[in-house]
Specification:
The protein is mostly helical. It contains eight helices and no strands. The longest helix is centred in the last third of the chain and has 18 residues. The mean pLDDT is 91. It binds protoporphyrin IX containing FE. Protoporphyrin IX containing FE (HEM) binds next to helix 4, helix 6, helix 7 and helix 8. The site of protoporphyrin IX containing FE (HEM) has 21 residues, from helix 4, helix 6, helix 7 and helix 8.
Amino acid sequence: MPSAPEPPPGQTIPVRLLTSETAATTTSTFYDQVGGRATFEKLVAEFYRGVADDPVLRPMYPEEDLGPAAERLALFLEQYWGGPGTYSERRGHPRLRMRHLPFRVNPNARDRWLAHMRSAVDSLELSPLHEATLWDYLERAAHAMVNTFDE
Ligand code: HEM
């Protein structure tokens, strides 16, 4: 194939460059789009506010202070949605179903968990698409975590 002719001296060939702005919009993660760390911190803080007053869920959490559990959940969710991989650096592979086996996650516990999470998600005031995407995942994950039907 003949090569393209050289442009006359002094003339340039227009090229479209991928600017950092367009690169950011085409490659940004869900984590970035919803506001990064601050958004996930708020999500878990709101969620654990609900858990702290829940007579079924609160006794399931082994530690006196819910702070470390909130941090683990935030790190996990951040990693899941494309943020930093700190969760796995600290905790290894998530294997969440296995990690929940010591706890009695029945449909009642699941529905309470989801109710607190629903309020927490609402508090973020995300765009409808981001909210639906996040909620769909949380709902499916919570259903998958059920490990007993005993009351
Ligand atoms: C369905 C109801 C659920 C209940 C009752 C429940 C309860 C618990 C409890 C009691 C713990 C131990 C607290 C701790 O020391 O971290 C825990 C840990 C955790 N849960 Fe759940 N959970 C539920 C669903 C979920 C879902 C849907 C997710 C993820 C989307 C999740 C993510 C986590 C994570 C990341 C940890 C920390 C695991 C670790 O690194 O040790 N949980 N959960």
